[in-house]
Amino acid sequence: MSISELPCVYIYSCCDDDPLKIIKLLRNEENIEICNNEENILSNRWTIDCKYYTADINLCTSISLNKLSDQFVHNINAIIILFDIDNSNIMETINKCLPLVEKSQAEVLILLSEKNIDSHVSNNATNSKIFEWCRKNHFELIVLEEIADEMDTTGIERVKQALYAHHWPNLKAKCQITNPSTKSIIEDSVINSQLSGGLSDLKMDTEQEAELDSDLFTEMFEGDFNFFKTIDKVRKLKEQISAMPDEERKDAAEKTLTECWKAFFGDDVDL
Question: Would you state the torsion angle of the CA atoms of residues 239, 215, 193, 203, taken in this order, to the nearest 10 degrees?
Fold first, then answer.
């Protein structure tokens, strides 16, 4: 099957970090087959196999952003940008990726750092610009070396989590997911992991007032339940919370949990 026939994750490095390393981490394999396709795109075919579906996708990378065909760009469902916080031209380099983001309309957008950004105290101005850039362009900031606590999902596992939650256009469902009981929705491990990981591992820092789009809660539970659409709504809520200062994230997370609880059990529930 041609590379242009499968949806793909496009990984681009704005620094010296090797994007093939990320492909190996995602596959959890050191020795993987890398194909050199047309337009000098390197790719590895990956079958995502989770509880609800299977999907064949390509993990791809290339040196240049300027020689990607329209067909290839159309198949990009996720974009992962690697960057180095110590790079003095970091904002300029990541901004070069925005035309591709807009053209591809990829739904999963990740800005990936090897180093823990919070530890770079001397670069607070740059940090703030990066946080604001992520908020404005709907990217999730993930740090590879970040250590998770009991409730968090971080690093490459968070990247995998975001990819697994995406509704791949060629997925093959393992079961019919329509109108499950409230109990099964709450107890479902995948949704629980998305809520806990998405709401707890965010470290954005802006002066924007902490506001959540309450319409998203209504949209999540209107009509027939659709697992993948619900996960997408959770992701959008996470993006909103990611743009909040540290001291406001806890309140926002509590409000999110409250709204979700009301969506399940009604406004009159005693919380």
Answer: 30
pTM of the model: 0.66
Phi, psi of 82 (to 5 degrees): -90, 140
Closest to 230 (Cα-Cα) out of 186, 199, 191: 191
Q: What is the pLDDT of residues 31-40, one digit of tens each?
A: 899 998 877 8
